[in-house]
Amino acid sequence: MKDNFSIIENEDHALFLLIKKGDKDAFVVVYHKYHSYLYSLALRYLKNVEAAEEAVQHVFVKLWESTRHIEIEINLKNYLYTMTKNYILNYFRDNKKMVSINYVNAQEEISDGNDFSTLLEEMQLSEILEQGIEKLPARKKEICKMKMEGSISNQEIADRMGISIHTVKSHYQEAIKMLRKYFRKMKLMLF
What does DSSP assign to residue 70? Predict the structure, then answer.
């Protein structure tokens, strides 16, 4: 796993060096690689689609404009993360009358980088889970979605769907097995 991390770091470093030289193709690769990561981060705190999109656009414009002037070794993912975090904090500062409560909460959460990273990882896992559920067969998908709604019992699901409670349990257990396989597959692809 550490070797895969090194490969990603080396790939990012090579892309960063190409961007420093004005390589637009390398910039596009970085954009596609980190866009959803940064968007999720921004949306989590800004809670506004347009503001999150603006944040990501700002970060990538800054990356393109400022990269040529950076003379130190950087971790590209951490650099983009920090730029996004700073944008969010500046956004809250500049719009403090509208979002004063969110500003305080974000400052507290962002100040502890480990918690912030953990929240981001949880969001990414949640997205992967949702994608996996969408790939399930119709009945299994429907049962999983109802289970995720909250405190709904197997009997209530059975009543809503007009099937037996045993069938609900069976579909749910099979869906969990399918989702585990999907997570393993995604883990191999990501690492």
Answer: -
